Amino acid sequence: MTAPIQPALDGSVPAPSSLDYPTWVDRVRPAFVEAARTGRLFTSYEIAHDGDLPEPPNPRADWGNLVNSLVRDGLIEHVTFDRSQRPTGEKSAVHVWRGTRAAQTGRAA
User: Fold this and answer.
1) How far is 28 from 54, CA to CA, in rounded Å?
2) pLDDT per position in the chain (109 positions), as tens?
């Protein structure tokens, strides 16, 4: 039995993701690694939007899981908070990240 698809607040029904979590990570991680190497400040939404990255199978959990894995791998570090630029984010607080020195110098990947 499959779970019902939850409509968005605007009534639209999101297209089901055909990617499983490991495949999705393989597709989106390189964009985050590249952003970490630049040393610039970024939010996960900015990287997803700028790179036209696909939505994960479980958007409510998978974006956070990905970012947490990047922190654990020593690629990014939390810098501050900002307001979300995601259209459905209602300007909520989001983490702002920067690549670690190890990521900027190519010692972490």
Assistant:
1) 8
2) 455 666 667 777 766 667 899 999 999 999 999 999 999 999 999 999 999 999 999 998 999 999 999 999 999 999 999 998 887 767 889 999 999 999 999 998 7
Q: Which two tokens stand for residue 103?
A: 């990521």
Assign 3-state DSSP to the chain and report helix, strand, coil percentages, each to 5.
40, 15, 45
Residues linked to residue 26 through DSSP beta bridges, in sequence order: none
**Contact by Cβ (8 Å): 32, 24:** no
Residues with Cβ within 8 Å of 58's Cβ and at least 6 positions away in sequence, in order, are: 21
All domains in the chain, ordered by first residue: 21-104 (1.10.10)
Name every residue whose Cβ is closer than 8 Å to that of residue 56 and which is 6 or more positions away in sequence.
Answer: 17, 19, 21, 24, 28, 62, 63, 66
